[in-house]
């Protein structure tokens, strides 16, 4: 690795100069696809590669994650990509990339049907390109070896009910009655994000809990007799588990505690484990989620709030060489987000990072895109020093980001590597400009 040095500046103290030299000595410039070779080498034989993002609406994060994923699939034999998305929607895309019958004519058509807010997270041109690449790559593989695409999240209560009832209508009419009964328990409550149901559980704490547990139990008991493709059976079981965990999530949501967050992240790990089991003993998974999910929570102030996350759990459950996480971030640019939940999506300006944040310090290194390797040397010399590390959600107010968009983080302990892009641009949602019929010209690599 090439070594760089920063010239001494009388206006900077020696600690900051030492920090910046340390980062330079343990990083490489991110210039093009070939720059990823060293990162892939560091990933080694890991079975779990967690790829983050500092926002849910940034073009470059999706592009680089897609390129890393392609290389891992082609050169390292990875089995699937699992994302911070809803299972039913992502499962439809999974069937498209595997070319199941009646799975859609184009990736644009399938992704355009992703209609739960925030739609832009997966209904975007960047994902269209990746999905078409996956479908083409899968053409030459036998069905059992095709690369999958799945959603890890817990939010799809209503869609999972619909998927189960539709499936059981053809395969198991008796269990369908149980599903309809459970569905009717939720029916009086608005199809939103579960707030009405959550409020109702304050009066009756286990309102629909027994109904959804009964449904899951019956589906698991009867699944071996379902005469259909194994992936469809796995999917109906997964939808039943989502309903159980969504009900738990909504009950916990009404309390001012970390429990709802923890239920959600435990569910995502449960789903990931199921996918690894389904794909067999040699399975390898690529996980796409926000930095706040894939970066180890123990290296942040999340731990003081009693919060855990996917990165922490996966690291605790597996050997060090089996897990590799990559965080992402930028200094400034634009992003797609809403000013409140359910608001119209819009392109917003991402202001320059606050002084002495992680992104600010990286910007001082000649404003170059780079990959930083969080090796033993970085851990030894930075130690427990915490940096403010920017995190932008689907709800974003740039004017006030300094009040709550920076997570104090021990960076070398939060990720194995970090990809820094000095200036980023907004994602390209399908629903903003549905008449476009080609990818943005800025899209690199032909992904």
From TrEMBL:
**The organism sits in which domain of life?**
Bacteria
Q: Which SUPFAM superfamilies match?
A: EreA/ChaN-like
According to its UniProt entry, one GO biological process term is: response to antibiotic
Protein name in UniProt: Erythromycin esterase family protein
Q: From which organism does this entry originate? A: Flavobacterium aquariorum
